[in-house]
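[09:14] KT: can someone run the structure on this one? pasting the chain below
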Amino acid sequence: MPPSLPGASDRRPRLTPAVADVRRAVREGLAELTAGRSSSGESRPLVLVALSGGPDSMALAAATAFEAPRLGVRAGAVVVDHGLQAESAAVAQAAAHAARDLGLEPVRIERVRVDLFGGGSPVGGDEAIKRTGGTGGPEAAARAARYAALEVAAVELGAEAVLLGHSLDDQAETVLLGLARGSGTLSIAGMAAVAGLYRRPLLGVRRATLQQACDDQYLEPWSDPHNDDERFARVRVRQSILPLLEEQLDAGIVEALARTAAIAREDAEALDHLVDEVAEDLTELAEAGCSLSVAGLAANPAAIRHRLIRLIARGQFGVSISRAQTLEVARLVTEWHGQGVVHLPGIRVERVAGRIVFAAAE
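[09:31] RB: done, structure tokens below
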């Protein structure tokens, strides 16, 4: 039997602390969209809730449906059907039905085909089949497909923002996974509350509060079996590692990790802003690439120097390089012994006449 996922029932939802907390978070998250706008007519911005049917996104949908009209914002929903489970189409239809029951409009189902081995690009159209490639296993491939579908829906419907249901617990899990990867400040900075098209108004709300808000409003979210599948690293963090840390270290570890993310993000954004300013002074563009002053790189702290190197690789050549590759280039400045060309993916880097020269590889 397909899973049942009804929307709000005939019973009157209760305004409980959990419901109030979620509505307040959404209200604050939407407030900037209404600044200086008229509350009538077509000038009202459209936001779309990314609705999976789970408790987090269902609580977000209910709060958005309540708050958006009061702020002069139109609110709809996008349900992404990844097609990874036998009943995924029925789950998607039920989630869309629940969204309409809540008063969200327009509501669109976007079907994607998750391709672990590469593929084409998404195409438009309601109920369309979209295809995307991905690396990093099924989680990464599904995420790439999901975001591609959300972007297509936002463009086609003219939405100014897509609301994501990530919670405080999700943020803590992201920080722990980032620490495990050892991939730098941005990795432990977690998820941004606002990132381009996307907004995460629930980053300060616990997952248990979101579940309680669903219960209090007589919503019956879908329980994704993948959320209990310990083949996925995030599930192991959620079910085993975080509970152990709470037991052995501090019951407030989730909040502490979220604070760490906020501090790391502030520091990373400040450093990135500083790097942009320094890069203007140290960089010379050439037809085949660009170069940085050795003296200028040497005069800056390692954190700035390494960011400058990564900025050039990413900004000029579209290449993301690892820490090991970054350090290899940095040694042309800090440990210069006449060594030759450093080969990066699609880039050759060498020291010439007091400058670090980046050029496209032949």
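[09:33] KT: thanks! Residues 253-282 form the longest helix (30 residues).
[09:34] RB: yep, looked fine to me
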